[in-house]
Amino acid sequence: MSLRRSPTPGPPTRRPPSPLNNGSPQLNAAPADQIRLLDVQALDVRLQQLAHKRRSLPEHAEIETLNKDLTQLRDLLVAAQTEESDCAREQTKAEQDVDQVRQRATRDQQRLDSGAVTSPKDLANLQHEIVSLAKRQGDLEDVVLEVMERRESAQERVNELTERVASVQSKIDDATGRRDAAFEEIDREVASVTKEREVVAGSVPADLLKLYDKLRAQQGGIGAAKLYARTCQGCRQELAITELNEVRSAAPDTVVRCENCRRILVRTAESGL
Q: Which UniProt keywords apply (predicted)?
């Protein structure tokens, strides 16, 4: 942005209240200083735009959505890991039960084969127990197989979710990298514009700049506006004929205010006066 330069201004003077100033004490500043205020305003608008751009980067929404997906996937992964762990413990218990039954059946079979049991009743009982143990072993082995199937399914689910978590995390990392790169670019421009603003604002009379900053805080970031074709560029309202006549008759160094929005009105060759 080119800087409009003028001789170093003297301190602004104050005159009695005027309708152009909404009853406030009249502030005066050289026309060049008032025009320079538009340069300050343009830089402040650019800083506002950069702040909005920083807040509105598409990566913000992308990262937020991905983080929600990641949270859900991690919850599912924890549930799958818990299920796999439970199945592992259940499988271990079932295999121990099978082993215990197998060992008992082996001992019974050895007793039967040894001939040490001679009583017909004891032999019958022993044979019956061996048959029962064989059935029990078969049932328990079926349980082991069923648990193994459930565990295998849980492991597959864990592997699938682990891959999905890694994929989403990779997307988050990529979006975060793009966001941070955009931050760096925006912040560099903010630093440049801020420095330029300090230089330009430093050439504006202190009282005028103080009024501008006060109005800018009150009026959504716009404290000074050009009067263009009889219209305030701050509120986009055309001046009423009485207000227009007052502006026409005002001295060039009079700091005038918009009757509608109270912003500082800066007169230029395009004001249509």
A: Coiled coil
Residues of the chain with CATH 1.10.287.1700: 58-188
**Number of Cβ atoms within 10 Å of the Cβ of 55:** 8
Q: At what angle do helices 120-201 and 58-114 cross, to 10 degrees?
A: 170
- Per-residue pLDDT reduced to its tens digit, 203-255: 999 999 999 999 999 999 999 999 999 999 999 999 999 999 999 999 999 99
Partners of 232 in the β-ladder: 227
For residue 254, the cross-strand partners are: 28
Give the tokens for residue 96.
């121990």
Q: Enter the pTM of the model.
A: 0.72
Neighbours of 227 (CB within 10 A): 23
Tell me the CATH number of domain 58-188, given options 2.30.42.10, 1.10.645.10, 1.20.58.100, 1.10.287.1700.
1.10.287.1700
